[in-house]
Every structure is written in structure tokens, then in C-alpha cells.
Predict the 3D structure of the following.
Amino acid sequence: MIELKNLTKTFDNFTAVDSLSLRIETGEFFALLGPNGAGKTTTIGMLSTLLLPTSGEIYIDDELLTRQRKDIKRKVSVITQEYSMRQDMDMDEIMEYQGRLYFIPVKKIRARTEELFEFAGLTQHRHKTIRKLSGGMKRKLMVCRALLTDPEILLLDEPTAGMDAISRRQMWNLLRQLNEQGLTILLTTHYIEEAQNLCNRVALMNNGKLEEVDTPANLINHLGAYAVDEMQTDGIHSSYFHQRQEAIEYLSKLEGTCTLRDTTLEDVFVEQAGKRLS
Amino acid sequence: MGIRTILWEKWREFLRDFSRITLAAMIAPLMYLIVFGWGIRTTMNGQPYLYYMIPGVISLTTMNGSFNAIAQNLNVQRLYEKAFDQVIISPTPLWQFIAGQIIAGSLRGLYAGGVILLLVLPINTGLTFNLLTFVILFLNGAVFSALGIVVSFLARNHADVPRFSNYFIMPMAYLCNTFFSTDQIPHGAREFIAALPLSQTSRMVRSISVGEQPNLIGIVILLSYLVIFTAIGLYFVYKKKNL
């Protein structure tokens, strides 16, 4: 279980995260969503102790998280937005270094590395240095590295950024499997579809503040499960309806190109952003 | 133990870059020895100047070897590769990371100094280097490794480490009892320069090399620098809010 209590982080005069309070249950798949600068990465930074909070606390299984708490840190693995790997090491060295940092016996590191590389299709590239790997391969290696330590909590900051559509789907399947095995997952993403497909709950953040926390289905239903898109000269205008019949009636009165479809989490996100702009 | 992990990492790095590390350790000191010792043939206290210079060059080589092994590397890991993030995130106690870096840096300095010692071995200088010499050189390396950690954390970009080297490490290499005695420096500056760690190391190593008893207060001074730089390094990793 992860609990954030009044978490605040300021950089000089800028407040990146503002009194964030949140509770993520064990085994939950949770996403932080928000526009650029919402405070998602800063929140992950504090959860991974890369950044220390200006005020507020983080609890993991009711224990206060600090940089000194190795027992708590052992439970957590982080996939950062940047590759965060030594460029001159090869894949085997990256895995061994990670395992050693987590005090895993070398024999176990090597056996687990075999399994993970096999699973991720990286075996044939294992002797390549990191600087020679493609972006997708580096991402896969980061996942292998994070799983090497058998974490209870996985923090992912934009895990599929830069991945092609197939690799992204593979990553989703993998994360879903891991969550089904009991791993608690917290991710930040710009792909709203990713959050909608994978997560039990999502939090919408803006300007460092939490705006809403709910299941994707509830957020969608709250807006209206059916959307009608009208093509107008200045772009697409969407209207939302709770009942399908209402949407059809509205659609029948319209002229020009229009479509009826299911509302998505992205609509919720765009509507929230629209409200803020107006 | 986290220290072993860091030593393993630095050992792998050493094996990967063995030839580059060895060449880099040799070039500058070899030039000093050739130009000042062999090219400009002169004497000091009735002895070839080369004999005076060798202890200083070995001391400055351990300083450069240790500082460069840690400062630039850690700076790149922190600002460019972000590999240092994984250390912070991991359960490895950060004091063990610092201790590992200091020991690894000292060993790299000692290796660089050892290479120079091997190079001057064929010259029959009659200079003595014993176990205490290596203890002092190791301590000197530890001081400059710890300084390297501090500098890498203070650096805001990649140019900051070479800049620090230019402003502080290079002047020390020339002024701290290496090529001439600090006794020749004007009063005021003399006391300051004599108190610097490389001055202490050069003085002690030179004393041992000519069979004199070194003033062991130098070891206390080196230990003091080591404690101060290590404490600053620990402050950074445990207390700095934005690493």
C-alpha cells in the first residue's frame, strides 16, 4: 500500500506538487494523468526518493519512506522516464549491477537474467553495450531490470514513451500479467488509452494538485457514456450523453458530418483541460 | 555489502577501459619527467633534479588518477546517463556507495602512481619507496576521490568538472611541493599551499624516498581532509533534496 500525505514539492518559487494526498491499495493498478507540468514525474521522483519532499510524507505499507530505509526501498522498483543506465555497460552487466545493488546473490541474478531476457526477447543482444541499443530495446531492458529484484511495487514514469504500437501492446500485456500476479503498479502516462485499458483507478492532476480520483468507468459515466462528434469549421465539437437514446436524438437533429461513439477517458481528460482553459 | 558492488562496477570499468586508463595515467607525468628531468638537465641540492621531482610526480599522478576516476565519471552518471538514479532508488546504503567510490578512486590513483614508479624503475635513482609510501599515496587518493565526489555533486553541467580541474587541481599539481619546495613560496601563500593535501603527500613521500623519517602530522592533515570531504559527500546523498 502506498499512501501520500499532504505531499508538497517546491523548486525555488515554483510548486510542482501541492498538498497531494492519495492512497493506492496493494495490488492496485493506478495511473497519474495530467498535462505537461502537472506534477506526475515529480511525484514519482519523490516516491523513488530521487527528490525529497518539501513537506508531507510518503508511507509504504504504513512505514515512512526515506532515503535511509533500505527495507522499504527493497520493495520498490522504478522505471524512470530517462534510460538511467551506464552507456558503456552491456546488458548482462546492467542486470548484474542492479542485482548487486539489491543484494541478490550473483547465481540468482544470472539465472533470473536468463529468464527475463528470454521472456523479453533480448537474449541475442545481451553482449551489446547500451549505447548500441535501440530505444525499444532499452525500454525492455529497463523492464527486465526492474523485475529482476522481484518488487512488490512498480513505479513507471511514461513506460511506453517512444515505443512503437506493437511494443506498446506487448508492454501492456506484460504489465497486466504482473498486476494479476499481485504487483502494485503506479504509472504516469500521456497515452490516456493506456490508463483506460490497464488501470483500476486513475488520478487527474493539474498544476501539482489532485483534481479527481476514480475508476476510468466512473469518470466516463460522470461525463456521459456516449459522445457525439460534430465536424465544424473550427474543428470537432463533442457533446456527451448519459443515455444512448438521448445521443441518437441529438444526432438526428444535426446536419453535416457527425458520429456517435463511446466516450473515452481521453474525452474526460480533454473536457477537464477545456474547463481549466475557459 | 554495497561497497563490494561499487568496487565490482569500478573493476568492470577498469577492465573495459584498461588501455585508455593506463595511457591517460602515463602521458602527463611522463612529459614532466622527460621535459623537466631529462630535457632540462639541472640539479637540486647537488642531486639530479629528476630525483627531486619523482616523488612529487608520483604524488600528483595519484591525485589526478583518483580525482579523474571519480569526478568526471560520477558527474556523467548523475547528469547525463542518470545511472546514479538507480543507486539512489536501490536499497544499497548511500554511505556504502560513497565509501566504495573513495576506495575505488584510491586504488585507481595508486595504479596510476604505480605505473609511473614502474617507468622510472630502470633509472637508478636510489630513491626508496616502502609500504608507508603506498599507505600515504592511498590516503592521498582517498582525499581526492572524496573531493571528486563533492565536485561531481556540485557540478551543474559537464563542463564544471574540467573547469574545477583547471582552477584547483592543475595549480595544485604544480605548486604543492611537486616541482619545487613550498619553502620558496612567499610568506602568506606559503602557509596556505603547504597545508593543501598534495603538499603534505609530496613532502612525506619525498622524505621517505631519501631515507628520512616523514613528518606524520601530514597523515593527520590528510585524514582531516578525507573526513571533511566525505562528510560533505554524505550530506549530498542523504540530505540534498534534488540530486
Remarks:
- The longest strand of chain A covers residues 14-24.
- The CA atoms of residues 115 and 214 of chain A lie 36 Å apart.
